[in-house]
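Board notes (copied after class):
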Amino acid sequence: MKVLITGITGSGGSYLAEYLLTKDNVEVIGTSRWHSTATRSNVKNIQDKVEILSCDLCDFSRLYRILKKYKPDAIFHLASLANVRDSFDNPLTVYNNNINITLNLLEGVRILKEESGYNPKIQICSTSEVYGNVKSENIPITEKCPLSPVNPYASSKLAQDNLGYVYYKSFGLNVIRTRMFTYLNPRRSDLFATAFTRQVIDIEKGNLDVLKHGNLDSIRTIVDIRDAMSSYWYALTKGVQGKVYNIGGEHTLTVGEFLDMLKAEATCEIKSEQCPSLLRPVDVTLQIPDCSEFKKDTGWRPVYSLQDSISFFIENVRKNYGQSN
């Protein structure tokens, strides 16, 4: 199977590539913008095992040529501008990018389908942020929960999500959509867990006095990055075309409880305080998924315990942060 990952050098795309390389008879190619903020260091351990193609997905002609030349059997669409806090400051950039890259990908496949019958499996990787602030009576969140995004990033992801359904329904593309809940990703520095851990490291080294944080009351269900990437493979190979699936972990805690666990792992006392600039204008505070539909259709289950996930996460944030510094 020839697999294309959009945004392969990103934090999620690089982990997905590593996971796919453990499968027999899977060839991995990926796109990366030449001016991307993602770092090639994410794929340094596998760069001789994958083919990375320079492509800004906003450039339809370049993307179309890649699709026509390589004709991947499966496409994982992970590329997006994904910083929620920054999306409040740059909504036009986030919205234009995330919608256009998705529309270009789907339209490129649609044209090739009409020309030659080419119709790969496509997974649109969406987010639980599309549900917005969910009422307590809708907890745990099922796929039928009302969609009400409250930030520009989430709105752009809902548009991606919906485009996937439109191209499945109207043009017969083999699209599966997934809505991922909170995961621990050591390679992504703009998530609360990584930001906390990097500050803990700085305090341990004497480079910082106090850890700054935003809202600690938000409730999250956490899944390991390795489980998250395996779930994408299960979705693509075992999921039902046209459906949308919630994907998440089985460990529920507040952001504050996660911070306390990090403090317990530190080599010195960690003082912390709230920083107003880290508070979102609107925060998504209750993220507990019902993943029963996904598990029923695919047989996927998370395999890593919360402690295993946190240990792996801290170890790799320490390693990555040390290298970047």
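Comment from the instructor: Residues 11 and 187 are 5 Å apart (CA to CA). The mean pLDDT is 95.
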